[in-house]
Every structure is written in C-alpha cells, then in structure tokens.
Amino acid sequence: AERTNLAGVRHILLVLSGKGGVGKSTLSTELALALRDAGKRVGILDVDLCGPSIPRMLRVQDSAVHQCDTGWVPVFVGQDKAIALMSIGFLLERPDDAVVWRGPKKNALIKQFVTDVAWGDLDFLIVDTPPGTSDEHISTVEALRPHQLLGAILVTTPQ
C-alpha cells in the first residue's frame, strides 16, 4: 500500500524550520497555490499535528475526509479541485481541539498519512511539518524514504 498510494506522486517537498511562527504553513499554502496556477497537480500533507492551520488557510476547515478502497480520500480545494489536502484538522471533532498525544501515537499517524492517503496523480506533494526538530520530522522522513524526494525548504527568520 505504501508504494501504491504515492506511486503517482512525482516530487515530494518538505517544508521545515527550527522553530515555530516563521511561516511554514503560509509558505506551503502559497507554494501550492503558485504551482496550481502554473498548471501543476498539487497535494499538501499537513503533518503539523498540534497546529493544523492549512485547512483554515484554504477555507476548507469544515470538510470531512472519506474512506475509499485504497485509504483516505484527501479534501480537494477550490472549484477546480486542483489541490488535494490531508490534515489532522479534518479528523478532529472541532477544528480548535487540542492534540495532546505522546510521540508513538503522533508517529503512527504520520506513517498512516504517508501510507493510507489516496493521492492519485500529483506533480508535487508539499509536506508541511511541525515547528522544531522533533521525532515527527524523523518519522516523516523515514516514512517517505522509499519515495522520490525532491528536497526541502528550510524557513528561517533573521533573528
């Protein structure tokens, strides 16, 4: 299943930073919109489990995730449905619910997001990571290791 659900994804791009509040989610969202406007098929995987802001940025926070034969169907954004999005924000009872989980449960969900989301054919999958340098980053990279990884964008500030 792991290879199957990401088999149609040409490039994977991680968006990281060493701290919070630097604009990772904003950059991920704007990059996805720019790639869509350039005619690319784009997905966003929001693995910022404690602060899933991308559903709100793309105005789809009230959407629901459904199951299909190959896993979860991501939420498609906009009238053209050109951006596919998966976020823990869609799995919470209320969008502002806190996620207070220990590492193993977070890492299991990240692996499930990588293996169990039916992305279909995408030119780019943008992975918005949580702030800092946590186990979640290691879990994300380990889960994506067998796949074509284009690279990473490191978001910094001048402070």
UniProtKB/TrEMBL annotation:
GO terms for biological process: iron-sulfur cluster assembly. SUPFAM superfamilies: P-loop containing nucleoside triphosphate hydrolases. One of its GO terms (molecular function) is ATP binding. It comes from the Eukaryota. Keywords: 4Fe-4S, ATP-binding, Iron, Iron-sulfur, Metal-binding, Nucleotide-binding. GO terms for cellular component: cytosol. It holds the Pfam family ParA. This is NUBP2 factor.
